[in-house]
Write a structure and sequence with these properties.
The protein is 39% helix and 16% strand. By secondary structure, it is an alpha/beta fold. It has one domain (2-158, 183-217, 257-277): Rossmann fold (3-Layer(aba) Sandwich), CATH 3.40.50. It is built from 9 helices and 12 strands. 45% of the residues are buried.
Length: 299
């Protein structure tokens, strides 16, 4: 099976490459400089040439705060490029898997969001990602849109790596404690994407198409997540770092973020029999890869 993936240095595309190689799958990654999603038509030649069995649309403009001022660029990359990719998938009569985000939701719901809930993004990033979803749905029914959240991994940039970097020079870090979500490990996303890709390539059943939520099991806040990262790092020989829990108002940012962006993953489990590992289990694996194994307990 030939799997075309957009993105070359990102968290999910690298995880797909790492896992795909292990499983003996042919992963073809396309990205800068040969294609530039801000010029979506640049996708056409490499996609046609690759003749893939399935497309995974992973690349995106993910700088949430910068998107507030680079609105047009974010719209081209997150909104229009997935639309072009989906039209190409339709023309080639192949399925497209696309990653979207928890930030399509406003964050004012008390419970975890389901696929039946109405998106109402509060940031430019969220709005442009929602536009990508809409353009994909308009282009082809042969799609699987997977909304994920709070992605971390040994690759690219993410919150875990930011905390570890800050912890090198500080004894205390202030982190917001009133935003709730589900940290998700990119290698687990890759595992799910490859399993779903294999199913949709051989099975045209419309019930395994549509929109699904895909996050690590469990929920937390950024402050609790940071605490777990520093505890895990300490078990691997790093110095202790205290987390000072603060409110969103104490940490002003250009982009507004949802207070609650927890996603309910039941539909994915019911449809594909897939549940990702709990986030603390995946965080352990990520820290093993970033720092090394836990030190022996002397007792
Ligand atoms: N990160 C997160 O917390 C979350 C991510 N998602 C979604 O999951 C998907 C994967 O995210 P993740 O792997 O973390 O993203 P990353 O930011 O790690 O990677 C994004 C990839 O997109 C590429 N890219 C950006 N701009 C362009 C462009 N103009 N032309 C070609 N390629 C470009 C980047 O290339 P380069 O490195 O060269 O810039 C990089 O390979 C995205 O669709 C994202 O919206 C959803 C929820 C949470
Ligand atoms: C670095 C830092 C961040 N924060 C806050 C800011 C923010 O509210 C929260 C997370 O910060 P970040 O900027 O790392 O994360 P952010 O860019 O908001 O992450 C989002 O990325 C996009 C791509 C998504 O799709 C989302 O699911 C989500 O993962 O933590 C602190 O409170 N203290 C800190 O020292």
């Amino acid at each position: 099976m030939r799997i075309l993936v957009t993105g070359k240095e990102g968290q999910v595309d690298t995880s797909l490459q790492v896992l795909g190689q292990k499983l003996g799958l042919e992963i073809i990654r396309i990205g800068l400089p040969e294609i530039d999603l801000s010029q979506p038509e640049s996708l056409e030649p490499p996609v046609r040439e690759a003749r893939p069995d399935v497309i995974i649309s992973s690349a995106a403009y993910t700088a949430v705060d910068k998107a507030e001022t680079e609105t047009e660029l974010a719209q081209k990359i997150n909104g229009d490029a997935p639309g072009v990719l989906a039209r190409l998938a339709a023309e080639l009569d192949i399925p497209i898997l696309h990653l979207s985000t928890d930030y399509v939701f406003a964050g004012d719901k008390a419970d975890a969001y389901t696929e039946a809930d109405m998106p109402a993004p509060v940031s430019v990033y969220g709005k442009t990602k929602l536009s990508g979803e809409t353009q994909i749905r308009a282009a082809t029914d042969n799609h699987v849109i997977l909304r994920t959240a709070w992605v971390y991994s040994p690759y690219g940039n993410n919150f875990v790596k930011t905390m570890l970097r800050l912890g090198e020079t500080r004894d205390e870090v202030s982190v917001v404690a009133d935003q709730h979500g589900c940290p998700t490990y990119a290698l687990e996303i890759a595992r799910a994407l490859l399993a779903i890709a294999q199913q949709v390539v051989i099975d045209r059943d419309p019930t395994i198409r549509g929109t699904f939520h895909l996050t690590g099991q469990g929920e937390t806040t950024w402050a609790e997540f940071a605490t777990a990262i520093f505890k895990g790092a300490e078990k691997r020989g790093r110095k202790p770092v205290r987390v000072n829990p603060i409110t969103t108002a104490d940490y002003p940012t250009p982009a507004k973020r949802p207070a609650n962006s927890r996603l309910n993953g039941d539909k994915l489990d019911d449809t594909f029999g897939l549940r990702l590992d709990p986030w603390p289990t995946s965080l352990d694996d990520c820290l093993d890869r970033l720092i090394g194994p836990k030190e022996e307990d002397p007792s």
